[in-house]
User: Fold these one by one.
Assistant:
Number 1:
Amino acid sequence: MCCSKGEFVLTSTEMPEQLVQLFTAHDPLSKHFRSCVRTYNNTFAFTSIGIYNYDKSLCRRNQGIYTFRVQGQIYHFINDLLPDGCPPRNLQLYFYDTDHALSSRLESTDRLDKDVVQVLMEVMCANPYAQFFKTLGDVEQAGEFSIVLNGNPCLDQHVYNRPATSQVAAVWVEDGYEGAPSNRNIRVYAHSGRSQNIHYYYGCYDPLQYPLLFPRGEVGWHEGIARCPSGVLHPGSTPTNSLSINTTLFGSGESLIAREELLLNTGQKRHSISCREYYAYKLQLRRADKALILHSGRLFQQYIVDIYIKIETQRLDYYRSKQRDYRGETYQGLVDSVSTGIQTTSDVGRRVILPGSFIGGPRDMRGRYMDAMALVQNYGKPDLFITITCNPSWPEIKNRLKFADEAQNRPDLVARVFRARLEDFKKDIISKSLFGKVVAYTYVIEFQKRGLPHAHFLVILSRECKITTSARCDQLITAELPDPITDPGLYLLVKKHMLHGPCGTINPQCPCMVVARGSGSPTCRNKFPRNYSAVTEFHENCFPAYRRRESGITVIVRKHSLDNRWVVPYNAQLLRKYDCHINVEVCASVKSVKYIYKYVYKGHDRISMSLSETREDEVIDEISDFQKARWVSAPEAAWRIFSFPISEMRPAVLSLQVHLENSQYLTFYGNQRITLIRL
């Protein structure tokens, strides 16, 4: 995840002292800067940012948890050199003298502080892009001219990534410059009347949009960054002499196949660093962190979402360019095509746009759902439904916050710690058999609207460990407040993590309150408060009615007194150890399985799941539909950049095609001769 055992080492540039002060100090000016850091960055950015949709309620929050969460694509645009009747913005501000630029920036919004703007203008004096645009004030204005931005400044990022002014751009004067700009460069005109898109594969993509993170114009990822030459095995690695694989160690058929392909292709390594590898390296925790990108607060949230969407866009562009050449049809359909005189496949089948190999796509999520149902067919219904949610106050997170960091602004740290806790949690459930012997399980990672990750587990126990009696259920699961005198520690944990609401008539504005069909008054969608119950009762089509006795024990939450009716079911041992919200439920019947699995595998968005239900003869752009439908928050972006799994299943399920005779599904190239297709 870091340097691939030394295959690549990238340099890092130290942030200017003025910016270090603003990002890390606790004086009023620095605190103001951090609260408005995205506004300051946009004011000094050379490009403008366009977002398909974003969660305004979370991105503009001054109190509570701030989360940068977007839907759809993120675009970077560069404007004309000269303003066309509008106030100057972005790169246009760099043509003016200091006083004019200062007043123009302060007039753009009332959120900026004059002293902070002056400090940032001083910092940007050393930026090669700012220096270049400043020199354009001396260019003779007669005639039309444009500039050419170097998309990928030729730098060896293993040793140096700060470009000089001459490396980032050049002036293009018609009839006065020999040679044409490369297709990989960006040509900006004085007056064109339109903005240009800065593509993700440009090395200048990052420094043009994030000057406060890359004040020296440090180049970002671009194609062709070479790995370190290596002709020997790295320490700790061993040669592979056998293709023998223990299939029980893999959580999915895809991971098993990927491992087989890796062993078969041993020695065939990529020569360049991928986009994901590059940014995973940049986001590592290091003792001597000179760049301070991880400590840039709310701007880091925006940046990490931006670079993940860049990584995802690169992958989707690959599928768009390659999959257009592939078609699919049944064997009998091809035979019928030959009989009607069709010789090539260009007019046969339908386009396969977004395949199941794209993790998180609608086909992938539907396949995971079908795999989960295969476990049910073989092992029976799941016995437990467990949800564990990240706690941003875990000591592993709080103890590693430096300077003025807040947990909400360190999605990289949140993702790492939750991943480590999740692995420990799996050991308790699976290896240590906390609830009994586990014969099969599956889990999926999801991210709350405010960004925190949580995992949904479905656990199938062995026959002798099934939860079939009230006594057995009460032994493992509790839905009551503990005695604050005999067990004050557990009492505080339940108060902190396992109480719902309050909602209902106490708080009708609670987010869980919805208006049901045929009812004019809102009710809690989670059916709280629950009824008192002296014993646990199992029901046919839902979760059990857990024991909730009238013990007289209460707790004060938001000035309201709550009792056992408001407790979310939990396991005391897990709650003590993990100090977070862990909801443990018994699955009462097979009829609830389908609902649970559909809930678990609903994917990025319900819109994505609906894509798999379209007619087979209908041609749609699945890639665009997927990009428009999914939401991405900063913790999810970090999770995906680090390549942590979004789901796991044991034992693994390998799907095989079941078909009638001559109805097997075939894939083929768009212009391939039908008679040459391997049937």
Note: The radius of gyration is 29 Å.
Number 2:
Amino acid sequence: MSVEIPILADAVMIFGLSCAVIVASHKLRIPTIIGFLLTGVLAGPHCLGLVGASHEVEMFAEVGVILLLFVIGLELSLDELIRLKRPVFVGGAAQVLLTIAVMGLPLMFFDVGLGKSLFIGFLAALSSTAIVLKVLGEKAQLAAPHGRIALGALIFQDVAVVPMMLLVPVLAGASGNPWLALGEMGLKGAFVAGVIFIGARKVVPLVLGAVIRTRSRELFLMTTLGLCFAIALLTSTAGLSLSLGAFLAGLIMSESEYSHSALEGVLPFRDVFTSVFFVSIGMLLDPAFVATHLPQVMGLTLAALLAKTLLAAAAGRILGYPLHVSILGGLCLCQIGEFSFVLAGVGMGHNLLSAMEYQYFLAVAIVTMALTPFLIAGVPSISGRLARLLPVGMSLKAQKDADTDLSDHLIIAGFGLGGHHLARAARASGIRYVILEMNPDTVRRERDKGEPILFGDASQVAVLEHINVSKARILAVVISDPAAIGRIVATARFQNPALHIVVRTRFVSEIEPLLQMGAQEVVAEEYETSVEMFIRVLSTYLVPRGDIERFVREIRAEGYGMLRRPMLNTADACNLGGVCSSFGATVLRVVPGAFVEGKSLIESRLRKEHGLTVVAVQRDGRTRLNPDPQWIFEAGDRVHVFGEQDLISRKAVLFIGEEGESWNGL
């Protein structure tokens, strides 16, 4: 049977195998990129030989690279670069330069030329943005300290790959005088960038605005792709690379208000063509070569994994992170990246790699990428071991002016948005607190503002001892790393069995393990978000506020009640559940002129006539539990009362008039 268009048969084979591989990848919980590489190995000429039109496949792969860089430019706004300037431009630059210096330049001692040595350093310096961000995102570790190290380095690498590709002809010596070539390339780049950015300020917003006003999705998509390919063609005509033009096109559009719409339209095309790119890379690998040179391939793979981990860890230390956190960041960056394949292809065209060297590179790169998900999956256990084994001095910088007489204080582990809010509330309420944070930039910035913040790992005994955890009342854990949360809870509970531990976590499924480790209260973002959602919906439908509050109390009593450790036996819970859900504790501040001001507890008749029980009163930073009947209320007192929630809401006027602050607690 003859096929008029051979590429169609190859496309059917590639997409059919890719679909099967994606299904298998999901079942095995490995990134689909690895599956695409394996698809290429199987379908390629060195294995089953199922694909014949390899040149056409490479053309599709080139389109995939263009779209991949275009999307990276779209997602990488200039504002984001400015916000992450230190992790990107200090940590990322340190990682790339150290890797080039250590894994590339020493090859000169083995009679490898300077240009080729630098080029090999370029290949080794890049990591897989697609794999690392996907795996860290799925495991909710992007906001963790090691995730921040990895993210900063990956962003810098994505930017650095463009000048690396521009330097390949210079490194190959194909441009004659290298300094003249660099100058010419710089002038070309400046001219093209100037034309493009001037056009971006004037032309692109006008064009996209006119297209948007037509309300035609098809026209917008075609215009977006047209701009991408047109700018790529412009840079190519100027003697630069197509990839550089695509990246600049994305960066230009990222500054417009239409970038999200453009990204949404281009993503499906990027996914399809990028998949073909990874398949085409797999087709180049010769399994017979790997089998013949297996010891060398394994040795090079182990060397690459170890060297890249340690060099990226050094970049983490330069940023000021503890050693064990830096090593975890290094583990996330230990693979060879997808842009190394692009760079290697350009280098092959300029004779910077021989056919055998290219096969070694492909084998090492594919194996390191395949191992990455499993290495990142082991980060929690590796982190725990490193935290115990490494010297405490590596993870604690004790400030000389740290408060050593802390007692009855609040410890806040983590200073993101949740930590900020908690510290602000504690400061306004006169509660003594101390903050532990692992981001050195945050520590420096907040200490300059006067916050009692220390740089340290809250999972380490010495760090907790330094802030008198044995005398603390409450530990609030508001960090984003699930594994670190568990270690902090276990360590703090061991150090202070009476400590009240409150934890914020992402998912409901994480509540029970944390309770078993020793936390008293675990707040799941997933659960609280669902509660807030139905509050907004019911409010929009003008459901009475009292009914909404009753629904909230019932849901919290039923939902969290099922998730917490049972404190009563089943029969007691069944008998008391409905009664207890209607009661609560509230803190009310006595304002000047309030009914209770100047009256004693017995004179106010709070329990006898109003149904409220006073369990404690806070005054001048001290707490009086179960005050006696002769206790005189004063303005500014914070009175803890217990009773029915609805009754407390009605009787709050006795203390605060129309204003107050409350919490649903008991």
Note: Residues 392-505 form a domain with the Rossmann fold fold (CATH 3.40.50.720).
Number 3:
Amino acid sequence: MNRKWMFAGLIAAALAVGSGATYLITKNSRSVQPQERVVEKVVEIEKSPAAHFTAYQAADYPDLTYAAENAVNAVVNIEVTQQVQMRNVDPFLEFFGIPQGYSRGGEYVPREFKAGGSGVIISQDGYIVTNHHVVDNATELKVKLYDGRTFQAKVVGTDPTTEVALIKIEGENLPTLAFGDSDALRLGEWVLAIGSPFDLQSTITAGIVSAKSRNLGAIPNQYRVESFIQTDAAVNPGNSGGALVNTRGELVGINTLIKSQTGTYMGYSFAIPSAIVKKVVVDLKEYGVVQRALLGVSYREIDEEFVEAFGEEYGIRETGGVYVADVSEDGAAKAAGIRKGDVITAIDGIRLGNNTNLAEIMSRYRPNDKVTISVKRDGKTKQFEVVLRNKAGKAELLSRDYVDVAESLGGRFAEINDRTRRELRIENGIRVTEVRPGGVLARARVKEGFVITHINDRPIRSVADLDRVTGPVTYIEGVYPNGRAISYSLVQ
């Protein structure tokens, strides 16, 4: 057979198959004589796999246009002027490798620089949610809308423990994005990430929900609350504070982190769930401070590693829930009857497991809220009614003038042991393990290793005692590891 005809025949067949049409096949291709009988048969040609795939794509591939067009109008670009404490390096000393830690060249000095991020308008009068790290230490905020309008913004409040911040611009009838239900997100569900990566405003990328309730230990705060939504939507520097939306165009998360060895997207992006964001925003608007409810326990999540290490000792053979390692003397748990060695399995019927963690659930409540705690004790399940308390150990909301002492100090802290107390001849104290620029400790020039014994004349026996200090920090007393006692008075 001539190749030309084969080729032509294949094209024709492909056209017929592609259209899904029926056609006639004649048994004899010679010219038909009157005495000859012609038999015709109608044949239905099945669609090829390629045709099936094309039809599937057209019918079932998600249409993300509505979500993108609805959400993009409410996502803004934030230009930030920040003041940060940077080490003033003496190039002469640096060239010769001379340490600068105790020289003038090694001091921290304030410097200003420009940075960028994203935000989401959540009310027509100009409230915008973004990340804490986007606006931290900001001296000026400039917000640019999708339509090109620009506004000056002010910080309403921030929450370093969740990485959520709320800012405000003065406007009316602004485009907004409604909160969706992050708890209802399913693995594999399509989502969009919208923001300004590398200053490319209103960039939209798509991906799926890869995992939920990720606790990465990434937020640099000892009271951190992490329960990230992991997606593979492309997120890069500048996306921070931008929107993660579902296919209905609802805000289900605030893009915050990427996991990368290069500093740019490598397939792993993380967003704060809207369930956490919404509660923080309401608190900042209504109370001026985040109303964090505390159970008053130290605990360890019961995973495979825990069961392998301590399961036999504690009689725990299954993963799930948290082991109560200790209870605070003035905490809500002890007042309700929960004790060391108990295993908390659920809060208000929400089981603690792979997709839920204690800190994330507790972040949704406020002081004086009542919850039902399910506990396993001696092989039996018990229920406890618990009235949650605030950081000061009271079952009441914090006032607007409440000062988060641990945060204002600007550092990390650790307990000290009996040996250290004997060596330093002190009865109580906590050690400063890190001093962060911009905090009270940095301004007072407190060095790492310093042991704080008193704040505002109140003895500090544990890290938890920081939450019980009221008002701004005006006086710090303590001792350095070499035995040198010193006090710092701060002028507000």
Note: DSSP finds twelve helices and 26 strands in the chain.
